[in-house]
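Retro notes
What went well: the complex prediction finally ran end to end.
Inputs used:
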Amino acid sequence: MLRLDINLVFTIINLLIIYFIVAKFLFKPIKNILAKRQEEIDKQYADAKAAENQAMELKKQYEDSVKSIADEKAAAVNEARTKAGEEYDRIVADAKTEADKLMDNAKKLAHMEQEKSIRQAQEQIADLVVEATAKVVASGQGSAADRELYNQFLAKTGEQQ
Amino acid sequence: MEGLAEELLAELNCETVFTIHLGSIDIPIAESTVITWVVMAAILLLSIFLTSNLKVHDISRKQLFAETVVIKLENFVADMIGEEGRAYVPYLCAVILYIGFANLIGLFGVKPPTKDLNVTAALALMSIILVQYAGIHKKGVKGWLKSFKEPMAIVTPINILEVFIKPLSLCMRLFGNVLGAFVIMELIKILVPVAIPVPFSFYFDIFDGLIQAYVFVFLTSLYIKESMEE
């Protein structure tokens, strides 16, 4: 019952062997598999993070491009508007110049016409005066004849008007 | 009555199973050593069976069980010894497994090896070596020697005595408990061989056996923790 002998040493050796068995055959494989699983989980987390970053980058790129398109559009609209305004101004200015030219011409023409008709009238009046004078001088017959001549002259003038 | 006493004594005796003759030296191999071999084989086979075909995904129930046991056991011991004594966890797990198996083997009608003083003495010796090693490893030889004067110089003899008292108490506690349980179980089995031993066996073989395994490892880890304290 109470014996202490060489079996104590055997038990110590056995204990060390049990320690070796437990450490090598039970703990090590389980630890390995747990570490592997942890590694895989970490890797998956890293992958997810990378994918998220990539997605964020793409989103940023997309937003940038959308923004640049909007900018370009606004610039194009502005440019078109400026061009259109210039064109409008130019056309209006041209039209105005043309119209002014036409007006001037018309005015000049009218003036010339007027002068011409005045000159014609003057010539006709002069002719009439000459004619009347000639007639008066030719007849020379008192006041009745004068009245006759005067009436003729008036009638002629009225016809001419 | 005399027959009963003889029978009991026969059960209590640690027999020598066989003797190895090395020239003129006789090496007796005790029953406890042989049963320890059986326990070792059981632990080895169980370990190999549980850790065969391990997978990262789609684990089998066997692997789930193995992982749960290892993690629980490790956390259980690590909680007692603390973060600093992490390196000693596998040894303590091995000890708790060995004592647990050794005590439970009484269920199969075999004499538990822990009933032999050789086994408990070996366990206690290993424990105290580990405790002192942990102290030296943590504090260095000087610090370890100085720790004998803690908390004051006058208690140095008591501290030195403790080096021997601690393993002795570990050894005798385990031995006494298992022997006591064994004696009671044998008495009951001799008196009433049918039915009655079952509930007692639950208490003395399973409950007490596992409690003793726990207590042994708990105290060892407590001593290790204590020896590592500054």
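What we learned: Residues 9-160 of chain A form one domain.
What to try next: split runs per interface for comparison.
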